[in-house]
Amino acid sequence: MGSQLRAIKVTENVYWVGAIDWALRDFHGYSTNRGTTYNAFLILADKITLIDTVKHHFQDELLARISSMVKPQDIDIIISNHAEMDHSGCLPQIIKYVQPSKVYASVRGKQALAEHFRRKPHLSIVEVVKSGDTINLGNLTLQFLETPMLHWPDSMFSYLVEEKLLFSQDAFGMHLATGKRFADQIADEILEYEAAKYYANILLPYSKLITKLLGKVSSLGLEFDIIAPDHGPIWRSNVNKIISLYARWAEQKPTPRIIITYDTMWQSTALMARAIANGAIDQGVSVKVMPLSANHRSDIATELLNAAALVVGSPTINNNIFPTIADLFCYIRGLKRKNLCGFAFGSYGWSGESIKQVEESLKTMGVEITGECIKAKYVPDEQVLEKCYNQGEDLAKKIKNICV
User: Fold this and answer.
1) Is the same domain home to 242 and 280?
2) pTM for the whole thing?
3) Cis peptide before 116, with omega less than 30 degrees from 0?
4) Is 86 a catalytic residue?
5) Higher pLDDT residue, 93 or 122?
6) Which residues 6+ apart lie within 8 Å of 360 measured at CB?
7) Of the residues 21, 38, 52, 151, which is catalytic?
8) Catalytic residue among 84, 163, 230, 393
């Protein structure tokens, strides 16, 4: 298999030498239905340089692609932009095999690598670079920009000055396994959805930092002809598209969309969800109903990226909210989506604590509560369903005013 793997040309001096993970379906709680790639890049400068490595069990794929261009032992420098294990998992083995003269990481990157790979003596050669530092590769120059908490404390960008090529680690990436290496080869609807899903589930909590970073990049006068992230396709044309999307998502400005999510035991909560949706739809706003029996938590997080409202329903079980609703709140609370409004609803048999618990969870997320909790005992009657419809209608009117 190794002899069949080839590096893919990005520029005259840069080649993709990463790996494709066609089988990945979960990335720490985020559903990756289209798999992913672990991107690594070989710079064929006077000092041959490897940018990042790959997940540990894809080491042979990385080495095979490198070997299609040069002997791995000819690599002089390795850059670790990000210490997360999907990019550094085989780094100790690669260092041992390649024996580069230098390995560079950020200050926190060096610390993270040491803490990840305890008792690996060959990691002692890792040296630190900081924002503004450069490395002379002979005929080319690498410049560094630390990007802490985008999305780990150690994260940094590497910029190949002469090529105007940004190695952006996890920023501007997506989980997408494909045989096509460049964004312009992939349908726009797939690109935009997977980029949005990645942002919503990975980078959303750091939106303020992203806005600040984009401003800093602009003030430094850095220009990008190519953006090469550590996951997904390489942006080699219209790079402003992904930068503009990030700027918009970081703003967290709501659009007139309502996400209604719920779980149900005997369809009572589902009936209420549909009534709320009908009231909102009749006001002409976009509504998406997402039962947790058919939607993954990370897909709901994705849909919330451009929404103005979140409405959550739960039946009561053992005096508590339904387990899937608890799971959803545990997940999306940490993503810190701002500028949402909404309310809670649900059904119960004899106690009904869940509905108030849902409302408290929404408040904990910072959601503005726009209406009282709606409860239905056993099966909702016409009066309850009318209340659901009216509250959906009122919510739609409110967000139309907010999103003017």
Assistant:
1) no
2) 0.95
3) no
4) yes
5) 93
6) none
7) 151
8) 84
**pLDDT of amino acid 2:** 57
285 and 186 fall within a common domain? no
Q: What is the DSSP string of 166-222?
A: EE-TTTT------S--BGGGS-HHHHHHHHHHHIIIIIGGGHHHHHHHHHHHHHHT-
Q: Supply the CATH number for residue 313's domain.
A: 3.40.50.360
Q: Which residues have a Cβ under 8 Å from the Cβ of 209 and sit 6 or more positions away? A: 147, 148, 149, 150
How far out from the chain centre does Cα 394 lie?
A: 33
Task: Clarify whether residues 156 and 270 are in a common domain.
Answer: no
Which position has the token pair 């408290």? 360
Q: Active site includes 231?
A: yes
Give the chain's largest Cα–Cα span.
Answer: 77
Active-site entry in 21, 76, 86, 359: 86
Q: Which structural domain range is residue 97 located in?
A: 2-251
Q: Quick check: 74 and 43 in contact, CB under 8 A?
A: no
For the record, the structure tokens of 36 come out as 């992913």
Q: Which of 21, 61, 154, 170 is catalytic?
A: 170
- Average pLDDT of the chain is 95
Which residue among 251, 280, 307 closes a domain? 251
**C-alpha–C-alpha distance, residues 181 and 183, integer Å:** 7
241 and 337 in a single domain? The answer is: no
Choose the catalytic residue: 231, 246, 262, 359: 231
Q: Are residues 384 and 285 in the same domain?
A: yes
Would you state the structure tokens that stand for residue 224, as one six-digit string? Answer: 């990008």
Let me know if 84 is a catalytic residue: yes
pLDDT digits (tens, 9 = 90+) for 155-190: 999 999 999 999 999 999 999 999 999 999 999 999
How many folded domains does the chain comprise? 2
Q: Which of 28, 115, 189, 382 is catalytic?
A: 28
Residue 290 is inside which H or E element, if any? strand 286-291
Query: Is residue 82 domain-shared with residue 163, that is, in the same domain?
Result: yes
What is the C-alpha to C-alpha distance for residues 186 and 350, in angstroms, rounded to an integer? 53
Which residue among the candidates 15, 198, 262, 348 is catalytic per the annotation? 198
Distances (CA, A) of 194 to 29, 158, 173: 16, 24, 9
Kindly tell me the burial class for residue 183, based on how many C-beta atoms sit within 10 Å of its own C-beta (0-12, 13-18, 19 or more): buried
Specify whether 87 is catalytic. Answer: no
Find tokens 């993709």 and name the residue: 16
